[in-house]
Amino acid sequence: MGISLQDQLLKAGLVDKKKANQVRKEKQKQTKHVQKGHGKVADEAKQSVKAAQKAQAERDRQLNLQRKAEADKRALQAQILQLIEMNQISTDEGDIAYSFTDGSKIKKLYVTEKIQSQLSKGQVAIARYTDGYALVPNGVAEKIKQRDENIIIFISEVITATDEDDPYADFQVPDDLMW
After folding, report:
1. Taking burial as the number of CB atoms within 10 A of a residue's CB, which of 66, 85, 115, 169 is the most buried?
2. 99, 179 Cβ separation under 8 angstroms
3. Distance separating alpha carbons of residues 27 and 20, to the nearest angstrom
């Protein structure tokens, strides 16, 4: 084999033995350092892969939570529709217009005299149902309201207690007052 440059410099007397050993040791340290550095790069790659896996797991978890929330919302809407369908009071024979507010709009439902009386006493409530409105008993309305307050539009509040300072306390307001 060929003679190394270091051996040639030693023979020529340009470098002494001590200096040559020192250079060799430094070179070995550099090669070890470079090899260890490759290990760090591998560790960094493993860490970045783990971080990516954690991020993906977090995204999957968030997506699953969102899907579960949407499924729960759909199930709740289905429960509300079922409650309305099963307990809906028919208004087919109604000929008396009953006015109520839906947000800022005034709407009318044609009801019978009996249902009008129940509406004014708070025994029957008006709920949003598909494209229109449905009449449901007050107990069912409370169950629906627990699930979604926006479905129940109107429940008449019966005022039983009178204020002592009310100047109109002696005057009764009729239950069937239409507006």
Report:
1. 115
2. yes
3. 11
68 and 34 share one domain = yes
pTM over 0.70: no
111, 106, 77: which is closest to 125 by C-alpha?
111
Domain that holds residue 79: 1-87
pLDDT digits (tens, 9 = 90+) for 98-155: 888 888 888 888 898 888 888 888 889 999 888 888 899 988 888 888 888 888 877 7
> Are both 21 and 78 inside the same structural domain?
yes
Helix, strand and coil content of the chain, in percent to the nearest 5, comes to: 55, 15, 30
What are the tokens at 130? 């598909």
Q: What is the number of other CB atoms lying within 10 angstroms of the CB of residue 58?
A: 10
In a domain, 164, yes or no: no
* End-to-end Cα separation, the chain, in angstroms: 115
